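Amino Acid Chain and Its Fold in Token Form
===========================================
Purpose: to set a sequence beside its fold so the mapping can be learned.
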Amino acid sequence: MELIRGLHNLRPGHRGCVATIGAFDGVHHGHRAVLQQLLDQGERFQLPTTAVVFEPLPREFFNPGKAPPRLMSFRERFEAMRELGVDRMLRIPFTERFRAMGAREFIRRVFVQGLGIRYIVVGDDLRFGRNRGGDVNVLRRAGRRYGFEVAPTETLIIAGERVSSTRIRQALQRADFALAEALLGRPYSISGRVIVGQQLGRTLGAPTANLQLRRLRAPLSGVYAVEVLGVEGRPLPGVANVGVRPTVDNLPRAILEVHLIDFSGDLYRRNITVVFRRKLREEIRFDSLAALQAGIQRDIQAGRNHFGLAPAAHN
């Protein structure tokens, strides 16, 4: 999958495609319906498929402190679309200049001059352009003028309600991982590269792998029983904390720390995926490092209990 970083990197070879546009945060069942239709039309027209996204997401640009937490980092979205078979992603930096661009100008510059689209697939709730003035009807009028087809995808309903990123965030906040999985089409997970941390967990008897979340806010917070992929050929049981470490740092942004139960080895710089299975407790501030250490050991035992593992052997 090719990543095109901004309109200035579009080349003549990128013209002539079928396209879609959206946030695609989570790449959930509803998004997959849009993307599958995109792929079908790409095959019909024998043209490459292109997904147009903004970075940062517009809501993060307008109000970073109150924007909904991302379900996925940009890299996770890219990888999810690559796995589905999308050919290209056009990532447009969302700036003041684009915020002020009207819907008709956006269509002309991006879809017509930039991509030369033949067909565009969109969600039926699409809004774009200055003051959210663009919608499916605006696209259809432009399509008649410039010669491309427009196909809205109907809202997908699961368990009587619309599938949406907002609904998934609400499920994660309630630790309803079964509902989140039903809406996503897969268990909720966070992927990333293990970075060097303070190695405090090692001194407390519970070494952890630290992942940068690469988002302004995390969609969940607390201590969880998790499975970790990407270390061995099978999922490994673990306990993860998503939060700001109030006992030690009170960080400005949340991080993800995961302890792999009964594992010893070097994980630095590995790309791993942490799959969330059950919430064990909220993140709390302990009065001392000794209390924190005791709390961590209780969390690990709770993780053992969740996975049906025998108690740890002590020398």
